[in-house]
Amino acid sequence: EADIYQTPRYLVIGTGKKITLECSQTMGHDKMYWYQQDPGMELHLIHYSYGVNSTEKGDLSSESTVSRIRTEHFPLTLESARPSHTSQYLCASSMAGSAGELFFGEGSRLTVL
Amino acid sequence: AQSVSQHNHHVILSEAASLELGCNYSYGGTVNLFWYVQYPGQHLQLLLKYFSGDPLVKGIKGFEAEFIKSKFSFNLRKPSVQWSDTAEYFCAVTSSGNTPLVFGKGTRLSVIA
After folding, report:
1. CB neighbours (10 Å) of residue A2?
2. Which residues are A92's β-sheet partners?
3. Mean pLDDT over residues B80-109, rounded?
4. Mutate which of A4, A37, A42, A90 to test chain B, going by most B C-beta atoms within 10 A?
């Protein structure tokens, strides 16, 4: 069983609110990722990090930001949520040198009204 | 840019039927290929992977996949499905160990008794 945790699991908020989705892993993995998952669509990479103080944007344009101050923690923040941000957000991690063997969290389902 | 195509959006099979889910990718170089599975209410998990060597790889729960380089394909197969195989299956590719995974849209498999 993978040790990667996401909170909250479910969140309903109003437009304009600032939210942070938390992601923590206890496996000591260097690489962490945020994907966005909508029904019937590809998982879209939003952000990723290959180590502390290193973050990159993925292929999906996003108004979110991330930080990687500690190895185990990779929070994602939306400064001003909009209904278009309604989606499932998946956090994942992998070992340095790992070629795609990701461990996923259970996801955070966000609904913006 | 890499992309992954999964041909079937939703597949419905009876128990004991054989399964083949299609996956094609667009990248001409060396690739690492994966199948991930998401059971209802659970997180995504690795089903099997191909890096090099024998193009027929075996994964958990009796699944296997065959890499056919000339067809840019990595189809997933199982000789006899069970009700517990009901899940969503995602094909994914990365061109090297240091680029994030690119996922397909997923195929929902429903196995009926």
Report:
1. 19
2. A33, A104
3. 92
4. A42
